[in-house]
Amino acid sequence: MTAMTHVRYLAETIGPRGSTTPQEAAAAVYAAQTLREAGLTPTVETFVSARSAWYPFALFSTLILIAETLFWAAGGWGAWAALLLAGLAFASVLLELAFRPNLLRWLLPKGQRETFLLTAASDRKLLALAEKAAEERPELAAYSHAFRGAYTEGAIAARHGFRVLTLVSHRRDGVLPEWHRPTDVVANVEAGVVKRTEAFVEELLRRIDLK
Fold this sequence. Notes:
Layout: H1 3-14, H2 22-37, E1 43-50, H3 55-73, H4 75-97, H5 103-107, E2 110-117, H6 124-136, H7 154-159, H8 191-210
Antiparallel strand pairs: 1-2
């Protein structure tokens, strides 16, 4: 099966995979089964999560608005209450960005989620190996890019002690085409890019095996 076949199955057969939804669980099962068929041994884990990754930040914005209202409308005690509430909100959102327990998570509706964990390690040497592969296989159009002020799923693995390398499809200016937009559908996925990415991953794995 090609990578594009998996893309179509996840996006069209299973469909949208929102946090804690049955579709997300089905996608985790599909991914784990695909890895098993490839001879690997993924571990499926269930955990409690907010029903949307955006909920903590929406709640943070609401708390800040409440704090501002208290500051202007409630007099002297309101200023202190606003300061306390804003401080709690800021501390919580910073903890959320660091994937740590916080007030925002406690207040939000939650549900069960499933993910699969496939043990893998990568470091700067692996990045250098990937850059070397990109240099020697220019037809694959792969290149490195440093993102600032953002994180990928790799940040979660890194938070738990894994060394990671993230592959993302974006333009050379760092823009992710169609990302999180209504136009982010299979019809707008460039099959050629997916095919080249698949070839690049295979080339990278081949070089890792030679080390």
